[in-house]
Amino acid sequence: MKLTNVLKALVIASIALTPLANADDGKKYRWKLAETWGPNFPIFGDATKNMAKMVKEMSGGRLTIRIDSSNKHKSALGIFDFVKNGQYQMGHSASYYWKGKDINTLFFTTLPFGMTTSEQYAWFYHGGGMELMKEVYDQYGVMSFPGGNTGNQMGGWFRKEINSLDDLKGLKMRIPGFAGEVLAKLGAKPTNIPSGELYTSLERNTIDALEWVGPSLDLRMGFHKIAPYYYTGWHEPATELQFMVNQKAYDELPEDLQAILTIAMKTAAYDMYTQSTHESGKNLATIQQDFPNVKIRTFPAPVMAAIKKANAELLEEFAAKDEMSNKILTSIENYRKQARQWTNFSDRAYLDSLDEK
Amino acid sequence: MKLTNVLKALVIASIALTPLANADDGKKYRWKLAETWGPNFPIFGDATKNMAKMVKEMSGGRLTIRIDSSNKHKSALGIFDFVKNGQYQMGHSASYYWKGKDINTLFFTTLPFGMTTSEQYAWFYHGGGMELMKEVYDQYGVMSFPGGNTGNQMGGWFRKEINSLDDLKGLKMRIPGFAGEVLAKLGAKPTNIPSGELYTSLERNTIDALEWVGPSLDLRMGFHKIAPYYYTGWHEPATELQFMVNQKAYDELPEDLQAILTIAMKTAAYDMYTQSTHESGKNLATIQQDFPNVKIRTFPAPVMAAIKKANAELLEEFAAKDEMSNKILTSIENYRKQARQWTNFSDRAYLDSLDEK
Questions:
Q1: Do you know which Pfam families this protein is assigned to (chains A, B) (predicted)?
Q2: B210-264 residue pLDDT tens
Q3: Contact status, residue B24 vs residue A22, Cβ threshold 8 Å
Q4: Which of A26, A59, A273 sits opposite B256 (nearest CB)?
Q5: Which residues, other chains included, contact A357 with Cβ-Cβ below 8 Å and sequence gap of 6+?
Q6: Domains A25-152+238-278 and A153-235+294-321 share a fold
Q7: What is the pLDDT, as a whole number, of residue B177?
Q8: What residues of A are in contact with residue B116 (Cβ under 8 Å)?
Q9: Does B334 touch chain A (CB under 8 A)?
């Protein structure tokens, strides 16, 4: 038997050993993921680690993903471009950060007065959300997936109580994005400030109020030490982070690794919501125990009504400007109405009937 | 080169092609799963199909799972024994069905006045729930995992309105298990009736009321045509189904297939909650549109208070009788209290502030 024949036999043997034609191709895939967050960022960073660990274990090491945090790639908001250009095969960030590139990426994270987390997952997976997100991202060669939910975000830390709309006038508040625009319509002065400067800005009255996330991530920021009022949320009822995958890199994976990657991302996203629920409950208990003077408040009804009205007007402007925006916003609003009926008669009616608040 | 050398070369080549020692062992695993449900049972049956499909795709066909519904194995409530004895490698059912075998299996599905779905997942994965469940099931050589959540179940369909505790006295209601025992303490006559006879029993006044699941599964049963009152839930706020795996069969799988199986079960469970949320919203809208006379009610506060008191007494009896029951119930109650604070200040405060009900 000649050496070439031996080699032929080896090739045939290697094919025979492959359980499915498109499964283990003998290749090892070494991917890189860029995330918006700094190293060891709690919860958000856990979601990427969780995803990469699941992929490694399920693929028996055939696909491994190195995670680069913002200290490494130096561009917290460059993730979209990294993935689009193929510099990184994957990214972890939030879709609403890309509204400057494409306004329609804005609607796949959360919306003020929008869906709760369970409603929004139902919209993504059964109400047309994934299909609409694909339509928006396809044109950039980027695949976008849910990347983990924070749950309902708190309305923020305030040094003074908000009793009427007048108290919003001139209020200097760190509240970025869409919600900031809503409050600006009511006379507030929204600003954005890097996270490292937030505590000092609030302490020195450079700002009067700020929103961050919720007890899960607020506790370690220390805001409860200098702002006695913690307001319940309206502006981000179900913030969903985002996994991004370069379409070309994905297409080059064997089918079993594609399935492993997709399911690991989905599970890591759900898992992050579960973790957020846990950490929020735990940290809220700590805040209440150690700082009993912190007062949790909801904006008075007339203030809520005015914010809601300003928000609806802003959304109408978006819908009027762009056909795809209109299509997405209509889908969200119709789905929210249908799902909310059930939420009201299930979890809400249940909680209300317990008479515990 | 002799033939034996060629064979040696083939063996070496096959080892070189195996990415990790414990990964693809070249074997194909053909498993069977027995489920409590009949064939094509919606949502519950979708959870097992979803799980098996993920396993097949992620393993490239190395692990496949055949699903036997109750028409095939003829023992809807024999699933625990099937898996324990190794007759089936896997099962899909609900933990509270096994309370006759071990009272402590009762607490891993849902409890009256217990946790909501998001709170309960947080307890399972971060609050010690999985560890307690393992402690209970280990002694049977069975692994137990969350198997999909229905969300908050409705309190049931009633032919007459419940205005006071007197209306519960003598009320013949199909409501099985723990919740039935609670209502019995208040003078109701709980019974269990096979699902196929429920509609006729209610129509012919053999029973006055019944509970099933919620809009997601109630719609196709047609109860809304003959019972005008649909009460909100208290007795199963977060019913979690169950995947079971025979420990020995699991131990024989290579590590990558173990990871694939575990993550597929976890994802299928989360996915079922998302699907339940969707189907409930959709079907509730259908009921409200086609049967506008259906009235959704919550039991009056004094009735709720009495049910809650009877429930607490029953739980105390359980805790007093069995040390492990006490340990599990204490864990659940402590966790529920901590998590509920957050639920009240997040989703509940948000929904209440919208003034939409």
A1: DctP (PF03480)
A2: 999 999 999 999 999 999 999 999 999 999 999 999 999 999 999 999 999 999 9
A3: no
A4: A59
A5: A351, B344, B348
A6: yes
A7: 80
A8: 347, 350-351
A9: no
Q: What is the DSSP string of B267-295?
A: HHHHHHHHHHHHHHHHHHHHHHHH-TT-E
**Each residue's pLDDT tens digit, A90-126:** 999 999 999 999 999 999 999 999 999 999 999 999 9
Predicted confidence (pLDDT) per residue in A261-289, tens digit: 999 999 999 999 999 999 999 999 999 99
The one-letter amino acid code at B229 reads: Y
Give the residue on B whose Cα is nearest the Cα of A268: B267
Tokens of B81: 């024994």
This complex has an ipTM of 0.93
- φ, ψ of residue A303 to 5 degrees: the values are -65, -45
Sketch the domain layout of chain B as residue ranges.
28-151+238-278, 156-237+292-325
pTM: 0.93
CB-CB neighbors (< 8 A) of A260 in chain B: 58, 260
Query: Which among A226, A234, A338, A275 has a CA at the least distance from the CA of B283?
Result: A338
* HSE value, Cβ hemisphere, 13 Å, CA-based, for B202: 27
Say whether B263 and A267 touch across the interface (CB within 8 A).
yes
Residue A19 to residue B154, Cβ atoms within 8 A = no
> Do the Cβ atoms of B152 and A356 come within 8 Å?
no
Domain B28-151+238-278 in CATH 3.40.190.170? The answer is: yes
* Residues A316-356: tens digit of each pLDDT: 999 999 999 999 999 999 999 999 999 999 999 999 999 76
Name the fold adopted by A25-152+238-278: D-Maltodextrin-Binding Protein; domain 2 (3.40.190)
Window 266-295 of B, Cβ < 8 Å to A? 266-267, 270-271, 273-275, 277-278, 280-282, 284-285, 288
- Shortest CA distance to A209 belongs to which of A219, A220, A198, A222? A198
pLDDT at A5: 52
**Chain A closest-CA separation from residue B254 CA (Å):** 9
Spell out which residues of chain B touch residue A256, defining contact as CB-CB under 8 Å: 57-60
Annotated binding site of A: 153, 174, 211-212, 236
Q: Which CATH class is domain B156-237+292-325?
A: alpha beta
CA dist B214 and B195 (Å) reads: 14
Q: Is B355 on the interface with A (CB under 8 A)?
A: yes
Question: Which residues from B are below 8 Å from A215, CB to CB?
Answer: 342
Helix B323-343 × helix A255-290 angle, to 10°: 80
Domain topology for A153-235+294-321 = D-Maltodextrin-Binding Protein; domain 2 (3.40.190)
Which of A194, A19, A272, A31 shows the shortest CA–CA distance to B24?
A19
Give per-residue pLDDT as tens, B278-312: 999 999 999 999 999 999 999 999 999 999 999 99
A74: distance to nearest CA of chain B, Å?
A: 33
Contact list, B273 vs chain A (CB under 8 Å): 118
Q: Choose the closest CB to A341 out of B285, B298, B345.
A: B285
